[in-house]
Structure formats: C-alpha cells, structure tokens
Specification:
Radius of gyration: 17 Å
Strand content: 5-15%
Helix content: 40-55%
Length: 226
C-alpha cells in the first residue's frame, strides 16, 4: 500500500519560517501595540489561521488595527525575509522529488495566504505540487478539517487515502479530523505523542518508500464512513 497523495503543511514543515513569523510579530506589537509580545504568545499561534492569529495579536498585543491589516503586515515582513533567504526544512525537497519520481501527487495545505505561497512554490521544480490550498482559499482554517478536505477534493480523493505532513498540534488536529494519515514532524512547538498517527524527528532520509511503509502500517477508514 502507498498513499494516493501527500498533503504538505508549509511553515515549519516545508520551510523553517516560524522564526520569521515570530520576529515579525514582535516588530508589529512593538510598533503598533504595547510592546509586550512574548515567545509564549508567538508559540500559541503556530499553525493557526492567519486571521485568528491577527485577532490574538490584536487582543494580547494591544494592536488596534483591522484584522486583515495585521495579516498583511505579517505577510509583508515574512515575505521580505524569505526573499533574502529560504530556510528549507531538512529532507523536505528531497522527499518531494522522490514522491514525484514515484508518481505520488502532492498538495500544499497552508494557512499562509496565496501571496506567500506564490513566493515559495516557484522555487521548487515545476509540478512539485498538483494543487495549493492557502489560508485565503478556505472559510475555516486549521484546526478545522476544511483545508485538508478541500485539498483531497481537488485531487479527486478521499482524505483517508492521503498522508498529511505537519509540524504543529493545530495542523495535526486539522489533518486528523479530515481523516488523513497524519505524520507529525515537530519543529517550533512540541506535538503531543497522542496526536497524529506517527511521529518523526526529521524528513531527512525518509523517501517515498519509507513514507509508504508508514502509511501501510496504519489501516485507514474512509472519512465518509466515520
């Protein structure tokens, strides 16, 4: 058995951009709010929908700006950093290439907005992702299952046929609720052991065959039958 598709989170999974987000949050709260932003606040936002993150920043950072303005300020700063240096996660590009060689399609499922995915995806080989589901493509962001359900639907698959790769509890909950086999590869925050179907410390050296073996080890129930 092998997965019909692999659904990738982006921030923290494909690219190690969480430090970029955290730095930008501090900048925004220092400039527009009370200057009291902490890494504890920042870690609470990892994996969440950007509008939910903006509301949290508004409340806890005392930033009195419209939600979408806060989102766009976040994106401006993170994209500027990515344009200077793209911090790829170990083994991510290699696994993407191996999946393509094996004929297993991939989708990107991220809470970052499309203008950020447009800065990342073109840096990969053409066709690395069959479809991209960005945060501004869905009504309900992670941890709601909608992003992963939309990705599976676009691929013409049941979510239970897919592997989702995530780095945060929020993302794992979203993928699991959709019915995906969920591989947790924690990065900026810890993913509790009871969340997800399997945990790894890195994607380095995994390969399509290794990922398929993990998927085959955990029988799935079609999401419609749950």
């Amino acid at each position: 058995m092998r997965p019909a598709a692999v659904l990738w989170d982006m921030d923290g999974t494909l690219v190690d951009t969480e430090p970029y987000w955290i730095a930008r949050e501090h900048e925004i709260v220092d400039e527009f709010g009370n200057g009291g932003w902490t890494d504890e606040h920042a870690h609470a936002l990892v994996g969440f929908d950007l509008r939910d993150s903006a509301r949290y920043i508004s409340k806890h950072g005392d930033v009195h700006l419209p939600v979408d303005d806060i989102v766009n300020l976040l994106l401006d700063g993170v994209i500027a950093r990515v344009e200077q240096c793209v911090p790829w996660r170990p083994g991510a590009r290699e696994l993407l290439a191996d999946l393509a060689a094996a004929g297993i399609p991939c989708a990107l499922v991220t809470m970052s907005w499309k203008r950020f995915t447009d800065a990342i995806v073109p840096l990969l080989p053409p066709g690395s992702f069959t479809t991209v589901v960005a945060g501004d493509d869905v009504i309900n962001g992670k941890p709601h299952p909608e992003p992963y359900l939309v990705a599976a639907e676009r691929l013409g698959l049941d979510a239970s046929q897919c592997v989702a790769i995530e780095d945060s509890p929020t993302g794992v909950r979203s993928a699991h609720a959709a019915g995906c086999f969920t591989l947790a590869v924690p990065n900026a925050v810890t993913v509790p052991a009871h969340l997800g179907d399997h945990h790894l410390t890195t994607l380095d050296g995994l390969g399509a065959a290794g990922l398929s073996a993990l998927f085959a080890s955990c029988p799935r129930v079609p999401s419609g039958a749950r």
